[in-house]
Amino acid sequence: MSSAPLAALFAVLAAVSNATAMVLQRAAARTVPKEDAFSLRLIRHLLHRPVWFGGIVAILCAAVCQALALTMGSLALVQPIFVTELPFALLIASVAFRRRLPGRGWVAIFAVTAGIGVALAAASPSGGHTAIGLATWVLTLAVAAGAMTLCVGAALRRPRGRARAALFGTAAAIGYALTAALMKAAVHAFAVHGAAAFFTTWETYAFAASGACSLFLLSNAVESGPLIASQPALTLGDAAVSLALGLLVYGERIRTGWWLLPGAAGALLVTAGVLALPGVEPQALKGPAGGGVAGDGRNGGPGVAPEDR
């Protein structure tokens, strides 16, 4: 039984947890040697960073909240709320690294949060079905895997920096949207038929594999360049792909007609806010003013290096 307010609440909690995980993983990934990029050595290196395990715990909390949200609401409602990860990530990072957000940062954060509220209120996602045919899943998996492969291939041809981070972030976004779509089918099996059905349906293992792959891509995204390059690609991409999967795979509905006008205005507000946030990163995500010690992973402590790549 759908409960949109509770679904939205759990989606927000999941966004906060994911934002926390992003900041913690960022702190761990900044110490990764260049030669370990996009290899299993990256994970081996991160396993020696306690702060990375904190990020994993936050991801698990987010997964639980996300599963509850998807049980109560539609994919097109729950996943777009994850665009608030970016404002939350900057707020958490500014506190963790003791940096004040400038005024334009607060304006951008307001634009993102207000915009997603307006867009979802206008769209009012609803409906949908849970009986997804195998042929639909095969086509969905093939298209998603193809798009992710193209993004990864393009990223590997570029040096470390914003473009590489954005491409890895986009690939991770597609993976996380696919993970959410598969998770919705798995948690539905759990809600209707119990734990036995959850552990015997193929979607459970598919979303676990997709989530692990997305986590690997995300680790490479945050290692490749600034958080502000990978996070917008991740959050906006996740929202857009999830909306498409909700409409095309699950048959969910959104309001059309004149409702498209405020919906488009909200989406533009979100996009403007996300694109305005890169100018906030130097003030929000560096280590404490006056030095690169407390926030610099190269000095033995978790944090963000003074110079972002």
Could you give a short description of this structure?
With 309 residues, this protein is mostly helical. The protein has helices at 4-29, 40-46, 50-72, 75-78, 85-96, 103-123, 134-156, 162-193, 195-200, 202-224, 227-248, 260-276, 281-284, and strands spanning 126-127, 252-253.
Number of strands: 2
Helix content: over 70%
Topology pattern, helix = H, strand = E? HHHHHHEHHHHHEHH
Spatial sequence of strands, sheet with the most strands = 1-2
Task: Compute the CA-based radius of gyration.
Answer: 19 Å
What distance separates the N and C termini? Answer: 47 Å
Structural class: mainly alpha
> What share of residues are in beta strands?
under 5%
Largest β-sheet summary = 2 strands, antiparallel
The unreliable regions are 287-309
Mean pLDDT: 81
Overall body shape? globular
Number of helices: 13
Task: Report what the structure shows.
The protein has 309 residues and is an all-alpha fold. It is built from 13 helices and 2 strands, in the order H-H-H-H-H-H-E-H-H-H-H-H-E-H-H. The chain has helices spanning 4-29, 40-46, 50-72, 75-78, 85-96, 103-123, 134-156, 162-193, 195-200, 202-224, 227-248, 260-276, 281-284, and strands at 126-127, 252-253. It has a two-stranded antiparallel ribbon with strand order 1-2. Helix 1 (4-29) packs across helix 5 (85-96), helix 8 (162-193) runs antiparallel to helix 10 and helix 8 packs across helix 11 (227-248). The longest helix is centred in the middle third of the chain and has 32 residues, at 162-193. The radius of gyration is 19 Å and the shape is globular. The protein starts with a helix and ends in a 25-residue tail after the last helix.
